[in-house]
Structure prediction request, 429 residues.
Amino acid sequence: MKITFLIHNIYGVGGTIRTTLNLATALVDRHDVEIVSMLRHRTKPRFAIDPRITVTPLVDRRTGSGDLGDPLIDQAAEVFPKEEKRYEQYSRLTDLRVERFLRDCDADVIIGTRPGINVYLREFGSPKALRIAQEHLTHDAHSRKLRAVLGRDYRALDAVVTTTQADARVYEQRMRLPGVRVAAVPNGVPRPSVEPSDGQGKVIATAGRLVRAKRFDLLVEAFAVVAAKHPDWSLRIYGHGAEEEHLRQLIEERDLGGRARLMGFRAPIENEFAAASLVAVASEAESFGMTIVEAMRCGVPVVSTDCPLGPGEIITDGVDGRLVPVGDRDALAAALLELVENPGLRRRMGDAAVRSAEQYEPAVVAGAYEALFDELDATRRSRARERRRALWRRRAAGVLRRLGVRRRAAKPVPADDGTGARSGPVRSS
Prediction:
């Protein structure tokens, strides 16, 4: 079977890139796998890619590239939806390159990895292939206008795959997709090459994009409570982002210099997690929770906010980690203190975390996708019938609405006054 992934930019960094590579690497043992990158901005990808995986970039934005001289690169995209956050990075050149590629694509399965790319898949992808839209963000993370676009275009695809059961339920309830299989398959996270944490290092670690929604500021505030009682513990924050300077100032204001540190980006992150005894996540929302699973695979218990939608499906509170209310500094600090002050509990939770995280082994996740491919292939005809019935119902409803509008617009027939004459004007037939 040939499987093609469509991704925004395989040469960058980010959770979608990592999870796509993890899945592609697991699938390439049994299938022909290709990754098609809409854009390219550097010569070599930042993450290692299995040499068996074919990588095909479509638009080259590197300095000196011939694509930069193509006038179409300066024209706004017409197919990629304006409602998508990445719209400004797309162009007519991208539209045409994607169309050309998908028209000639001979893959059995084509998987899009972000909303705008899934619109490309619906527009240009051959219906002979299984066309699958992955959602790495949650339904509610999309704007209302984008959801309207996706609600129309996703109807033509074979499946929409979310990373959590909770988000799959939201799609089923709020987006009418007859004939489209809505499935939840978590992201795969490989077994780390490092030994699990021994739980002895007096380090709390965290990682991610330094943006407001991740609430690293809340974590710094909670750590200030921990540091006041346990000055020998430290907080290490890994990542880059817009909040970096704000966090640096906050660390200075709380007199945490030397104990709370911004460590920059690290890949792979497992070496850093294995050197810690706790990992903390303070996010307002998570579409999945890669950081959580990566830490658990390193034998480190995670203290996380119970934010929508991922952490609550990954962590069993009190067994392999802790869940606390979103935005509650005191609850976050209390949960961290509980584990800082109880090394035995820390170790038991770390051991349980390793066992729990085995379900995210990429081979297990790849098996779930293969089962989905088989199901979609076996149900092609029944799903097509369901889609046609839904289309007929929509058309019939539209006709009835139009007829109803006409009836409401017509003037009522006046009542008979008993003499056989009408007291008002008569509606013509």
